[in-house]
Amino acid sequence: MRLAAPEHGGVRASEAASVRKRRLSDVLGVALDGVDLARPLSEADFREIEQAFFEGQVLAIKGQDLTPEQFLAFARRFGPPEPHVIDTFHHPDAADILILSNRRKPDGSPAGLADGGTYFHTDYSYLQVPARVTMLYSVEVPSKGGDTLFADMYAAYDDLSAAMKQRIDGLVVRHHYGNRDDLDEQSRTAASRLSDKQKDKVTWVRHKLVRTHYGTGRKALYGVSGSSFDIDGMARREGAALLDELKRHALRDKYVYSYPYEVGDVVLWDDLATLHSATLTEPDDPRTLWRITVKEPCFETALRASSA
Ligand SMILES: [Fe+2]
Questions:
Q1: Which domain holds residue 136?
Q2: Structure confidence by residue, pLDDT tens digits, 184-212
Q3: What is the pLDDT of residues 103-123, one digit of tens each?
C-alpha cells in the first residue's frame, strides 16, 4: 500500500498506490483516501494503517461500503472487540457492534443509542482495561451538525509546566462510569443511563493520571474529563479541583479538532491519546453510526479495582 507522508492542506498521491494520506488539521487527525476495508488487508497494509492511526490520533478512512462482518474483520486486526456495558442496541447480525442512532423502530422504540457521550471523555476509562481504539462507521449523517470533537492529550501534557508535570506524574485517579460534571440521569449531556442490571456491572477503578502510550512511548494526560472523580491521597474536593484545572487546560481551543462526518467514513480514535465529545443533534434529523471498541492490549498500566 505504501502511504505517502502526510502533507497539511493538500493531498500527495503515493507513487506506489492510489492510497493518499492527508492531515486533517494543525491539531490532530489524518485521513486516508483510496483504502478499501471490504477487502482483506495484508499485515504490511494493516501496519501502515496502524502507523497512521498512531500518528494522527484520529484516523478517518474515507469512502467505505461495509457489511457488519467486514467492519468487524477490520476491527479485529486491532484486538478482540469489547461490547459496551449498554447491551440494548446491538446490531442484529453482530453483537459486538453498538448502533448509535436517533431513529425509531416502527413500534416507536429507539433503534439505537442516542445522545451518547456528549461530554469530553475517553472510552472505557471506567473499566480496569480501558479502550485502545474506538471506531465508528458512518451510515447516515444528519443534515446539520453531528461532528465529534477530539482533544490532543499528548500536546496538553507536553505543554504543562515542569512543576505541574512533577506534581502529577505519579498520581492515580479513581474512575467510575459517569460524567462528573453532569450526574443528572435525565440530562442529554450526562453519561447514557444504565439499567440497574448494567449498573451492577460497573465499579470503581484506578488509572494513572499521566499514562505512557503502549505504541508511541509518549506521555499523555489521561481521562481528566468524564469518568474521573477524585485522586488517591487527596481530599475529594482537592482532587476534583486539580482534575478541573487540568481539564480546563486540556480542552483549550488549540488542542481541539472537530471532525465532520461523511457517509462511508470509518473513523478511529486513540483513546489513550485523546479525549472526545459527541455533539448534540436535532432528535428528528436522522443519524446512524455503527461503533466497535477494542480494549488496550496489555495490563501493565491498569491498576487494581477499588471499592467505592
Ligand atoms: Fe465515547
A1: 6-306
A2: 888 887 887 888 888 888 899 999 999 99
A3: 999 999 998 988 788 899 999
CATH code of the domain in which 81 resides: 3.60.130.10
How many A from CA of 16 to the centre of ligand 1? Answer: 36
Cell of 43: 499485515
Q: Is 228 among the domain residues?
A: yes
Please give the tally of structural domains in the chain: 1
C-alpha 295 to ligand 1 mean position (Å): 13
The answer to whether residue 19 sits within a structural domain is yes
Are 5 and 37 a contacting pair, CB within 8 Å?
no
Per the CB < 8 A criterion, the answer to whether 23 and 29 are in contact is yes
Helix (H, G, I), strand (E, B) or coil at 40: coil
Secondary-structure percent of the chain, ordered helix, strand, coil, rounded to 5:
20, 30, 55
Quote the ligand 1 centre to 125 CA distance (angstroms).
10
Instruction: Judge whether 114 and 283 are in contact, CB under 8 Å.
Output: yes
